[in-house]
Fold each of these.
Amino acid sequence: MALQTNPPTAPQAELSFPVTGMTCASCVRRIEKALSKVDGVQEASVNLATEKVTVVFDPSVASAQHMQAAVEKAGYGVRDLAQQKADYTVGDLPQTAPSSNTAATDSPALAEDPQDLERQREIDDLQRKWTVR
């Protein structure tokens, strides 16, 4: 009788980075599809509201530059990827990622993220322009 063993799993890394130029659910799908075509990418998830992409990938096959090129080829921009790629983690990832909402309330430094501040300024500016006095 043959003993079945699980095949060795490739190391996984997770990378999140901001994407610019998204306006609708079709944009989300285009970016996810473009990233899924990159060799080594196992999962790509785009959040339209936060304008961020989270990618689970094999770092020995795919790189941040490959993912950036795929997003840009699809017609969207990538912001601050050079800084973000140093933050990804390699190893066994949990099946469910912890909620980012809990991290934001635990650390005041996350509330002062330059990208979040820039986005809030943009929202405030648009709100001022549309406010009828």
Note: The two ends are 81 Å apart (CA to CA).
Amino acid sequence: MPIPTQIGADPGQQTIANGTTIASVTPGTGRIDVAQPSMYTPTVAAHESTHIFQGTRNGDFQRASQSLLPQGVQSAQDYDYGGVKGLQSNPLKSIGNYNPEQQARMVEDLTSAQAALPAKDEPRAIAGLGQQKECT
């Protein structure tokens, strides 16, 4: 189960509901700065690693992704992509239609779901989580 998180004041900063920063990525560094090691889980690592990957994409991709983020202080709503049901209800949407925080939350949620599966059943159970989306 993922830690209940919300956006911090700075993009790329993940905090828990009480406002404590767990980890953040400084754009262009390729480094995750961990502020709370005891709370740094594989799901947080997956989320922050997605931001590092996003930073390696070309400038057009970065500008387009950033333009999808609301301006000013962000909220938990800016992370909401609708879950598996939301993805299935929008089969023509690609990952590029989601903002960087929604993209990172998708990876975070998948990491959490995989961690909850028994190791011997993982491939079979993952196949049952939902149908594949075709990216356009």
Note: The beta strands are 5-7, 13-16, 21-25, 32-34.
